[in-house]
Structure formats: C-alpha cells, structure tokens
Design a protein that fits this description.
This protein is an all-beta fold. It contains no helices and five strands. The strands form two sheets. The chain has a three-stranded mixed sheet with strand order 1-5-4, with no helix packed on it. The chain has a two-stranded antiparallel ribbon with strand order 2-3. The relative contact order is 0.29.
Length: about 70
C-alpha cells in the first residue's frame, strides 16, 4: 500500500517479518540500496515530504532529523 502522497511505501508492520531499521538523516532526499551487495536492491531515491519515508524495497525507514531538511528544492 502506498501512502497518499506517493513519497514512499507505507508497509503494515509485521513483527518478526518487517525489518525495523530506522535511520536519521539530515536531507529530505535519500538514496537507498538496501545495504548493497548481494542482498541489496536497485538504488532508489526517496523524498521525505513530512517527517519520514519508507523504502518500498527493503522497508528501511528514513526519519528527518529535528531542525534539518531545508533543501531549497534540491
């Protein structure tokens, strides 16, 4: 299920199945490759519109750090 703004994937958390990795970032645009290597996925760029975004491939959640994220449209 995608979120209403289509900024990322909003999975239903299933304990023991859905990874619960959360990363605090300072930019509204983040790149995710699932950790790279054989277990990774294609590099995707995600845009944080509000406070967080979740990767549609690996369910990693990126949370915008307090006071960060004024990218001036870049």
């Amino acid at each position: 299920m995608r979120d209403q703004r289509q900024t990322g994937y909003a999975p239903v958390l299933t304990p023991g199945v859905t990874p619960e990795e959360t990363f605090t970032v300072t930019s509204r645009t983040v790149g995710c490759d699932g950790g790279g290597g054989a277990l990774g996925h294609p590099l995707v760029y995600l845009r944080i519109e509000d406070r967080q975004v979740t990767c549609p491939y690996c369910s990693r959640t990126y949370v915008l750090a307090e006071g960060a994220g004024d990218d001036h449209g870049h």
